Amino acid sequence: MARRLHRDDWVNAALDVIATRGLRDVAVEPLAASLGVTKGSFYAHFGAQAELVAAALDRWQELDTREVLSALDAVADPRQQLERFLDIGFGRRLWGRVFAALCASAADPQVEPVMAEVRQARLDYLETALGALGLPASDAHDRATLIYAVYVGYWRLVAADEDWEYNDRPARERMAAHLKATLIPPPP
Predict the structure, then answer these.
(1) DSSP string covering 76-123
(2) What does the DSSP 8-state code read for residue 5?
(3) Is-contact 26 17, C-beta < 8 A?
(4) Per residue of the chain (188 residues), what is the pLDDT tens digit?
(5) What whole-number distance in Å separates Cα of residue 186 and Cα of residue 184?
(6) Cβ atoms 60, 68 nearer than 8 A
(7) N or C: which end of the chain has fewer CB within 10 A?
(8) What total number of domains does the chain contain?
(9) Cβ-count burial of 188 within 10 angstroms (0-12 exposed, 13-18 middle, 19+ buried)?
(10) Is residue 22 exposed (0-12), middle (13-18) or buried (19+ Cβ within 10 Å)?
């Protein structure tokens, strides 16, 4: 009996391809082959490749932004929110790789609005948490932008050179610790 795939199987496979090879390599026939099915299985769930990409973008946004920010909202202390934000942002390699690949495809008409929405949600979250620590609005805005710029730059550098000396968990933990010490105000 042939293996029966669900929509999520295709979405997860697309995210894996985005993380390892980039958005441009998300194509129906190679995905079907990697999943061990015919492309007819794809069309049972999606009308076109663009629908799969949209579903993958939505899943990434849900898991790597909405759910993360929602979980952080459950933390009462803004300093702890910021620290956890950095731990998560630098600790989740797969999502960092997906993020870097999507940054590389940011001009794509499907990707651009999602990336803009994610960027704004993350910057707003950082700015609000920094403001809750008593920073003036302009300082909170600047620090939020710096934190996010380091995050973007880090994952882009990793994507450019898998052998980079900072491409391992201890290095990511040091990066997050340095950002915490540098950009999150100390307790009073």
Answers:
(1) --HHHHHHHHHHHHHH-HHHHHHHHHHHHTTTSTTHHHHHHHHHHHHH
(2) P
(3) yes
(4) 456 889 999 999 999 999 999 999 999 999 999 999 989 989 999 999 999 999 999 999 999 999 999 999 999 999 999 999 999 999 988 899 999 999 999 999 999 999 999 999 999 999 999 999 999 999 999 999 999 999 999 999 999 998 888 888 999 999 999 999 999 998 87
(5) 6
(6) no
(7) N
(8) 1
(9) exposed
(10) middle
As a whole number of angstroms, the distance between CA 133 and CA 47 comes to 48
Count the neighbouring beta carbons within 10 Å of the beta carbon of residue 174.
13
Tokens 């620090």, located at residue: 143
Exposed, middle or buried: residue 113 (CB in 10 Å: 0-12, 13-18, 19+)?
exposed
Which range of residues forms the domain containing residue 65?
56-183
- 119: CATH: 1.10.357.10
Is residue 26 in a domain?
Answer: no
